[in-house]
Design a protein that fits this description.
It contains 22 helices and 22 strands. The strands form two sheets. A six-stranded mixed β-barrel has the order 3-4-9-6-8-7. A six-stranded mixed barrel has the order 14-15-20-17-19-18. The relative contact order is 0.11.
């Protein structure tokens, strides 16, 4: 083995350019794989950062339409009394509150949690204590708070004396009892925990989504998610009558908490891993072609060694030693490059898209890189070694007889070109499909005018606005102040706004005259005030907008619906004046507006109803259409709000255009990475095609010279070379198209308004690859026409 290594290094010293080219090509492929796999490893393979993470589960309801749904406080209390398979179970409810004192007022997001929340996670505060059942019980001390480590550092400068200190949250005094460890929770936006006190508040126990919760649990030793599910499903019929009709056909599921948190990332993560895997295979094919081209210079050496008695296995071992050294050099360089690329990759993807994850080079990633390196060495080294280890001694010893000796290598090189062309087609087609999908989403009609619109949200403390009337007066005072600011065209308010990425509301609606459909259709809803529709640019299609008189608790209940809901419930009728059943009451439809894409540009509009804010004033987001660049009015907005409440912070201040852009961030990130990999694959494939054709021309110098000497024109020679090269590319394109059809079906769920077998994308990819391949083949072909017949024949 030492002799093989010494001989390999002597060979490398003779051709350093070849070694550098091979190592850099492999480093590119292995580095990309290492960086992407580090993300896949963190998302899908690493356990959650809690003790015994395999026992952590999510408990969720399963609607009769499928999928998983969040639950509410009433159902959580049912599950608490029904489960024997769970060691502990806990609920968490998202809240936004104002933190005042110790600096400027700020809006912070947190969780209201039941007493066992930290016990389920087996998470202990770094200072202070966790919640007790007394904190969460009726009559207990509910005004206690646990701070996140990040809020403790930023707001309280990491002062350990913060324990037992009083802080103001939503104008109420809370006693700090603990501080969580750094990055303790999977949601990086959670700044605090307070008791949920579900059993202390009657409205939280209603089984009608009055108090929406996520529920987690920890299985007992030996228990399984399947048995826990069966137990809860079996208990449901006994209390089903206590549930609203739309939930009586629902079921329950207990699943891994890891799956619940990261399951949606599996498809895009594995797609990217497959893409970089294809890039690595193309890199291997290129290095194999380099080795085959180099073999022509070594065939005499190998023939002599065989003639002196070297067996095939000995030759293969020597050649594989050289290949593995190149592979491990490329693997080392690639692993270092991948480690360097992790931070830029995470920054590009966005840390909020990788919640609670530590993306790094760990033992699993190192083992992956080592395995990829070893496999790479075998893939690009074995076939050239076998082709070179059994030379035809007679042909090799005959000066000038190269055709039969090189023929096998040329066939193998041709096969490798077909292989890498096919892989490149697959990557380009997948990238093209996602690109087409992205532009279709970008060009879709959002249903509103995103230009010159500013949005921000406010949180009204219950202590300062305890009644609906208080909250309504607050909304109207803010609207008056905002509307008077210079440069404001229209100002409106809603409980949520489209594509806010944080919150949305929904409930069941049905025709009042058709009670049999009462559990049939779930629609989004918002309470609105002011010039909401004009501020958003949502058109009125029929009827009227709300009048000021509608926003009165004693006024008849009226609503405005979007045209998607109108078409669904009143396909051949005028909905104006008809009644809808919504929240256990009958509401008259007074207007129909255009449909809005509520969540993302690539999600089609669903049904939506709008009611006056007097009926739902609990969440407030303000929408301001301006005559000037929106962000220039940020100071005026703060001044208008603080004129009503000096302690009121503005949260989520942004332009509507920016929020729409952010809604496509995940799709844009995925597409950009895939385009980079596809472009890399295309470049490697073209380099491979050029290299093989250049090598082929150099091997056929004598033939070209004879053809020219016999009167062949330069065009004939060019045509000959192009025909040989494009034949291989066409075979690769055909094979790649077949594989791409299956790949398109696999990524179909990630496409918007685009078929996985879009013929336009397939045709454009084929034309692009053929055009670039034509250039890659033409350059060696042009060189072939410059062969001097006399020089070529004399050289032979």
């Amino acid at each position: 083995m030492l002799a093989d290594l010494r001989f390999a290094f002597r060979q490398f010293a003779k051709s350093p350019g070849f070694v550098v080219a091979a190592v850099l090509t492999l480093a590119l492929g292995i580095g990309a794989n290492t960086a992407i796999f580090s993300v896949v490893n963190a998302l899908l393979l690493q356990p959650l950062p809690y003790p015994e993470p395999d026992r952590l589960v999510q408990v969720a309801e399963v609607p009769n339409t499928g999928g998983f749904a969040v639950t509410d406080g009433g159902v959580f209390t049912d599950w608490e009394g029904q489960t024997t398979q769970l060691e502990s179970i806990a609920a968490a409810h998202n809240v936004d509150k104002n933190l005042t004192g110790n600096g400027d007022p700020i809006r912070v997001s947190g969780l209201e949690v039941s007493a066992d929340y930290l016990r389920v996670l087996r998470l202990n505060p770094v200072i202070g204590r966790g919640f007790t059942r007394e904190d969460d019980a009726p009559g207990g001390n509910r005004n206690v708070v646990i701070l996140s480590h990040e809020l403790w550092q930023s707001r309280f400068q990491g002062d350990a004396a913060v324990i037992d200190r009083t802080v103001q949250i939503d104008a109420q005094s809370y006693t700090v009892i603990g501080v969580l460890p750094p990055q303790a929770l999977l949601n990086p936006n959670v700044a605090f925990l307070i008791p949920a006190t579900i059993r202390a508040d009657a409205y939280k126990q209603v089984r009608n989504y009055n108090y929406v919760c996520n529920v987690i649990g920890r299985l007992k030793p030996g228990a399984t998610a399947e048995r826990a599910t069966l137990e809860l499903v079996s208990a449901r019929p006994g209390i089903n009558s206590q549930y609203p009709p739309f939930r009586q056909k629902w079921s329950v599921a207990v699943r891994s908490l890891h799956e619940a948190v990261y399951g949606n990332t599996r498809a895009p993560a594995l797609t990217l891993l497959a893409a970089v895997g294809a890039v690595l295979l193309i890199a291997c094919a290129n290095v194999a072609n380099l080795l085959l081209a180099k073999a022509s210079a070594r065939q005499g050496e190998i023939a002599v060694r065989v003639a002196l008695g070297a067996v095939t296995g000995r030759i293969v071992r020597q050649l594989m030693t050289e290949s593995m050294l190149i592979a491990f050099a490329g693997g080392l360089a690639g692993t270092l490059a991948g480690a360097w690329a992790i931070d830029p990759l995470v920054q590009f993807v966005g840390r909020n898209n990788l919640p609670g994850l530590s993306v790094r080079i760990d033992l699993t990633v190192l083992l992956f890189s080592l395995a990829a390196t070893a496999l790479t060495g075998v893939l690009f080294g074995l076939f050239p070694a076998l082709a070179l280890a059994q030379p035809n001694l007679s042909d090799c010893m005959k000066e000038g007889a190269r055709g039969s000796t090189a023929g096998g290598r040329r066939r193998l090189q041709s096969l490798l070109i077909v292989f890498e062309t096919a892989l490149t087609v697959v990557l380009l087609v997948c990238a093209g499909l996602l690109l087409s999908s992205f532009f279709r989403a970008l060009g879709s009609d959002a249903g509103f005018n995103r230009d010159n619109v500013l949005v921000f949200s406010l949180a009204q403390p219950a202590s300062q606005a305890p009644t609906v009337e208080h909250r309504t007066r607050f909304i109207r005072a803010i609207l008056r102040g905002v509307g008077q600011a210079p440069g404001v065209a229209f100002a409106g308010e809603a409980s949520s706004t489209p594509m806010n990425g944080r919150i949305g509301f929904g409930d069941f609606v049905s025709r009042e005259d058709r009670p049999e459909t009462r559990t049939d259709y779930n629609a989004g809803f918002d309470g609105i005030d002011g010039d909401f529709f004009r501020a958003f640019g949502i058109p009125l299609l029929r009827g009227r907008f709300f009048a000021e008189a509608d926003n009165d608790a004693k006024a008849p209940k009226v609503m405005i619906v979007n045209d998607a809901l109108a078409r669904r419930l009143f396909p051949n009728e005028d909905p104006i004046g008809r009644l809808l059943h919504f929240k256990d009451a009958a509401w008259e439809i007074v207007g129909v507006v255009g449909s809005v894409r509520q969540f993302q540009l690539d999600i089609n509009p669903g049904g939506q109803v709008y009611v006056p804010s007097i009926h739902f004033p609990w969440y407030t987001t303000f929408v301001v259409r301006t005559h000037v660049p929106p962000l220039t009015l940020a100071t005026d907005m703060r001044r208008a709000v603080q004129a009503v409440d000096p302690q009121q912070p503005l949260a989520n201040l942004a332009t509507l255009a920016d929020t729409v852009e952010r809604s496509l961030q995940g799709r844009r990130t995925m597409l950009t990475l895939l385009l980079i990999f596809a472009g890399t694959a295309l470049a490697l494939a073209c380099i491979g095609i050029y290299g093989v054709m250049a090598y082929s021309v150099s091997q056929r110098t004598r033939e070209m010279g004879i053809r020219l000497a016999l009167g062949a024109s330069a065009g004939n020679v060019v045509s000959l070379v192009l025909r040989d090269g494009l034949r291989l590319v066409l075979l690769g394109v055909a094979a790649g198209a077949l594989v791409s059809y299956g790949a398109g079906r696999m990524i179909a769920a990630q496409l918007y308004d685009t078929s996985g077998s879009d013929p336009v994308v397939f045709a454009l990819v084929a034309l692009l690859l053929l055009g670039i391949a034509l250039i890659a083949c033409w350059l060696p072909a042009r060189r072939a026409t410059r062969v001097n017949p006399v020089t070529a024949l004399r050289a032979e």
